[in-house]
């Protein structure tokens, strides 16, 4: 068996083309979706991510604003900036690029954003709505993963899904989304005993650890769907995932690559949320 690759870049491109048409139609009705990103400090990875989001917005016709702040900004100043954006009727989506300096309480920042403009889907109100199956802004990476699975008409109902990783950004919410789709879900993490025994039973395996090639074929049931969320830089400077792609593709039925896998879908779901925010706020 050789797994079929789920190409996130290709899927993202198709979805963004449809979004471009959707934004044009909104513009005709005098609705101009706008995303404002606050970038603090000069972290190279954060700058790269924000640049990618800005480019994707421009291509889709979404107005993109980047507010750059020095790493020395106080918590009070940042919260005041967010409050201004909450009250700016031209801004539909607000995103504070993480991580932020340690002297600022990240949870306070997340909770300061108006839930109606929380296009990252991190606000406790939106998380609570997701948990209870209500319509809300879904976290971008988990939503992108679900879209990738659904794009191949992969059945989730009644299937056994295992998520390796329990972060608030990926692990926990992707498990909840799969549960909402009627999968049976188990979480594994650094304290899990006999992890291999658990993952070998999974019909759908989501890996979000942040360690290069931590999962090889010995962890994977034959015919499983494997979604690799990890992005790691090798000694040679290339990007690779948490999954040993060449090894695992010999046993899986579907697998996502790194790069060109989950990454492009994350930004695409951010665009989706921004468009939806504009529709809801302007109605």
UniProtKB/TrEMBL annotation:
**Alphabetized SUPFAM superfamilies for the sequence:** Aminoacid dehydrogenase-like, N-terminal domain (SSF53223), NAD(P)-binding Rossmann-fold domains (SSF51735)
Which reaction(s) does the protein catalyse, per the Swiss-Prot or TrEMBL entry? Answer: (6R)-5,10-methenyltetrahydrofolate + H2O = (6R)-10-formyltetrahydrofolate + H(+); (6R)-5,10-methylene-5,6,7,8-tetrahydrofolate + NADP(+) = (6R)-5,10-methenyltetrahydrofolate + NADPH
Annotated residues that bind NADP(+) are located at: 165-167, 231
Task: State the name under which the record lists this protein.
Answer: Bifunctional protein FolD
Q: In which pathway does it act?
A: One-carbon metabolism; tetrahydrofolate interconversion
Task: Outline the extent of the Tetrahydrofolate dehydrogenase/cyclohydrolase NAD(P)-binding domain.
Answer: 139-280
Q: Which UniProt keywords apply?
A: Amino-acid biosynthesis, Histidine biosynthesis, Hydrolase, Methionine biosynthesis, Multifunctional enzyme, NADP, One-carbon metabolism, Oxidoreductase, Purine biosynthesis
SUBUNIT field: Homodimer.
Q: What is the lineage of its organism?
A: Bacteria, Bacillati, Bacillota, Bacilli, Bacillales
Question: Can you tell me which family this protein belongs to?
Answer: Belongs to the tetrahydrofolate dehydrogenase/cyclohydrolase family.
Q: Which cellular component, as a GO term, is one annotated location? A: cytosol
Q: What is the E.C. number?
A: 1.5.1.5, 3.5.4.9
Tell me the gene name: folD
Q: Does the keyword Zinc apply?
A: no
Listed under GO biological process in this entry are:
L-histidine biosynthetic process; methionine biosynthetic process; purine nucleotide biosynthetic process; tetrahydrofolate interconversion
Record's function text: Catalyzes the oxidation of 5,10-methylenetetrahydrofolate to 5,10-methenyltetrahydrofolate and then the hydrolysis of 5,10-methenyltetrahydrofolate to 10-formyltetrahydrofolate.
InterPro entries, sorted:
Aminoacid_DH-like_N_sf, NAD(P)-bd_dom_sf, THF_DH/CycHdrlase, THF_DH/CycHdrlase_cat_dom, THF_DH/CycHdrlase_CS, THF_DH/CycHdrlase_NAD-bd_dom
